[in-house]
């Protein structure tokens, strides 16, 4: 996959967005996953590169819940085993004795969107619902903060400002001597290093004891093993387990041991630690019903997820909302109002640097700060009498101190049908000065200006 020019990617589960893809995509701003799981996206690299990762948390809720309910029915009545036996030409009514769901306890681990839908549907079968809450706490042991000093230098500079009034018929030039103060401020960003030492996960039982649960449904996506040898030993003998949430929540080796010993009476698995699974011991077990991750594989869910991710991206771009953002903790600072002036300043610096590339043998120095909006203070030591707002279309050129040069530039713009909105000129250094014009549109070609100026560039902010 190669996406250097794209601003956004919309993917499904089959596309892998690796660190190499992300680092090569220099313009990438958002990765939209049409679905819930983002295991196929390198979220850490995306966050480090300032890229938003977004999924569709609601798109497949109904489909996943219905598959979970189907798994419960299949385990209770051994429907897949009966189908396989019939296809083999057998008639084994006594072998596939099932159980009723009425009056049985359904334990749901994680009562989120899908868990709630499962509970609603299975209550109609007369099942009693038990809910398990997962508490995840993070203990931060070490935080180191480094703050560098802020230095302020005040320099008194006496400069000459040339005010020029341009009309169609005449050009008037006024030279005024003034004295201004330039304040240079150097700030180093605070560096914060946080080391997370311990993550603890607590399982809290609500409603009924685990020994009363006949069917346990996992509906929480956490990257830890919740069902292992210890938890299986506490369960009611013959408990049936369904996992349609995420692979790795159930210790597969422990599950196999529980199935072999009879502690677990059956398992319905739509997800695995490794997909597709290389070890087929569980898949081939006679008391296991397995599917190749079909939770969201319905026409309705796929259509809904595709529509949702497109809508969410449009809402984000238009500033309406941020829904389904996986790395919201990282991008929230970038969206904060107090951060926006600094983001604009960074963008302006980048655009000015890009525009000046190749000018003056690549050694042009500019001083930019922010005053609500980014403003330009000086170029190559030549200070502007008034700060120049870095916004709109700007024509920047260097020329000798000669009013005729300005007339020539105005003539070129007039020939191209481009209006001048504002004009700023710097102090004169060695008989030369920098000129910045805010213009209605950028010139298609700068070559007509080159005979009249020494250096010229333009940019749009």
TrEMBL record:
Short name of one Pfam family: 2-Hacid_dh
Keywords: Acetylation, Oxidoreductase, Phosphoprotein
UniProt cross-references to InterPro entries, sorted A to Z: D-isomer_2_OHA_DH_cat_dom (IPR006139), D-isomer_DH_NAD-bd (IPR006140), NAD(P)-bd_dom_sf (IPR036291)
Record-linked CDD domains: PGDH_4
A GO MF term: phosphoglycerate dehydrogenase activity
Organism domain of life: Eukaryota
Residue ranges annotated for the D-isomer specific 2-hydroxyacid dehydrogenase catalytic domain, each copy included: 3-327
Database matches in Gene3D superfamilies: NAD(P)-binding Rossmann-like Domain (3.40.50.720)
Keyword Hydrolase part of the UniProt annotation: no
Domain D-isomer specific 2-hydroxyacid dehydrogenase NAD-binding, chain residue ranges per copy: 70-132, 225-295
Keyword check for Acetylation: yes
Xref: PANTHER family: D-3-PHOSPHOGLYCERATE DEHYDROGENASE, FORMATE DEHYDROGENASE 1
Family: Belongs to the D-isomer specific 2-hydroxyacid dehydrogenase family.
Protein name (database record): D-3-phosphoglycerate dehydrogenase
